[in-house]
Amino acid sequence: MDRRRLLTLGAAAAFFPQVACAQTPTAPASLAPKPVPALKPPLESFKLWPNGAPGAENVTAKEDWILRNPGGDPNDTAATHVTDPILMVRRPKNPNGAAVLMIPGGGYVRVAVSRAGGGTDQWLADQGITTFTMTYRLPADGWAAGPQAPLQDAQRAIRLIRHRAAEFGIDPNHIGVIGFSAGGHLAGWVSESFGRETYAAVDEADTQSSKPLMAALFYPVMTMMAPYAHGGSVKQLFPNGPTDAQRKALSLEQNLPVDMPPTFLAHAGDDRVVVAENSLMLYQALRANKTPTELHIFEKGGHGLRTDGKDEPFMELWLPFAKRHGLLG
């Protein structure tokens, strides 16, 4: 199963019927109609902000869920112009008390995510980890917080998971964060920003810490500085163009706190979308900061760490690191 396909419009629990593959005796097999994939039922979900996200006064964008490949798998979707962020929950059959906040990517222009979940959250659940996959606001949509709008959502998500830990059968001290691509940037950003408040508290959940126990960042956007910055993410974070100070403020390798959580990194050397120097730079900064860290650079895998249609074993490599740093018993 493709663990990275975090998809679906899946707000409906019904399934699309499959199209039969009938063909006339004389029709070539290649012309036979392909079955339509089923629309999977959604995971349970809840809103991040009970009374709406903060700073929406000038937001006119309308949230939408689109197919990433028009005419393709109806479960392969992305959320655009997110106005009402949610957390989707994958509960394991045999929970071990650990939880992970999973942050999908999308270049800060969309959130490549499924309301039905995908292979990664299922794999985590198979390890006994309760997984919360989030959607988040996008910085170019006019939010008062500008580029910090997604950071507000990530901080709120960790606090809310911690606040509701008993409800989900998790240990509030065993909450990690993982992120992919631009979601890796956001996962790293929330991991280093627990010491500052980015929004006014809205309820009791906001008395909780937003610090994760550990972070895992996969093929992540890290720096906003030339020559290794991902141009698309920079454009979305700073629609009017960034100053040098703004670039530096969002370059994670330049803003590590002394008590940065242990951080795992994985990237492919042939990634042409977000070059591996992003992870290399952060790894060097983490080592200089004396933060426990581990880095894996795969020879092949591109942007997504997949070779010949199969995932590289980055999650399997992450698991011992997670155990070593207390996420799992």
UniProtKB/TrEMBL annotation:
Q: What is this protein called?
A: Alpha/beta hydrolase
Q: Which InterPro entries match?
A: AB_hydrolase_fold, BD-FAE-like_dom, GDXG_lipolytic_enzyme
Q: Which residues form the signal peptide?
A: 1-22
Query: Where, if anywhere, are coiled coils annotated?
Result: none
Which GO terms fall under molecular function for this chain's record? hydrolase activity
Q: Has the keyword Hydrolase been applied to this entry?
A: yes
Per the database record, which ranges form the BD-FAE-like domain? 97-286
The protein's organism comes out as Asticcacaulis endophyticus
Q: Does the keyword Chaperone apply?
A: no
Q: Give UniProt keywords alphabetically.
A: Hydrolase, Signal
Please spell out the taxonomic lineage of the organism that makes this protein: Bacteria, Pseudomonadati, Pseudomonadota, Alphaproteobacteria, Caulobacterales
